[in-house]
Amino acid sequence: MKFGKTVIDPANPQPCSHMRNLVSSLSDGSAGGLSSWYTRLHVKGCPKCGAALEAYLAIRIELSTLDLSEKTHIEINLTPERRSNLELAMDRIEQERQGTLT
Fold first, then answer.
1. Burial grade of 68 (CB within 10 A; 0-12, 13-18, 19 or more)
2. DSSP labels for 51-64?
3. Which residues make beta-bridge pairs with 6?
4. Distance between CA atoms of 36 and 22, rounded to whole angstroms?
5. Residue 25 burial (CB < 10 Å; 0-12/13-18/19+)?
6. Alpha-carbon torsion angle 31, 37, 39, 40, nearest 10
7. 7 pairs with which residues across the strands?
8. Distances in whole angstroms, Cα of residue 69 to Cα of each of 54, 61, 62, 65, 73
9. pLDDT tens-digit series, residues 67-88
């Protein structure tokens, strides 16, 4: 799909590089205040970011309908080093959320 000089891949729409985090935050509801206002304003005038926001929202809706009961099990085979790195990254994210990152 093409809007003027902007080419949008309908299978994988990507927002402008400087708007990635903001569009993602708007889609999950974590954007607030000035960030939310600015992102909404930008998305209204930018076909790339508008398409990306629509795609993000559609993915969130689809994910929310998945059955993640105990019956669902995904086996992930990681090397011990990768598992350790993943656990450290998850701990860091949790610390950032709680404001206890040192």
1. exposed
2. HHHHHHHHHHHHHH
3. 3
4. 8
5. middle
6. 110
7. 2
8. 27, 17, 16, 12, 9
9. 666 555 556 677 888 888 888 8
State pTM to two decimals.
0.58
Q: What is the DSSP string of 15-73?
A: --GGGHHHHHHHHHT---HHHHHHHHHHHHH-HHHHHHHHHHHHHHHHHHTS--STT--
Higher pLDDT, 39 or 5: 39
Three-state DSSP class for residue 102: coil
Amino acid (one-letter) located at 13: P
Structurally, the chain folds into a number of domains equal to 1
Question: What is the span of the domain harbouring residue 40?
Answer: 2-98
Q: Which amino acid is at 95?
A: Q
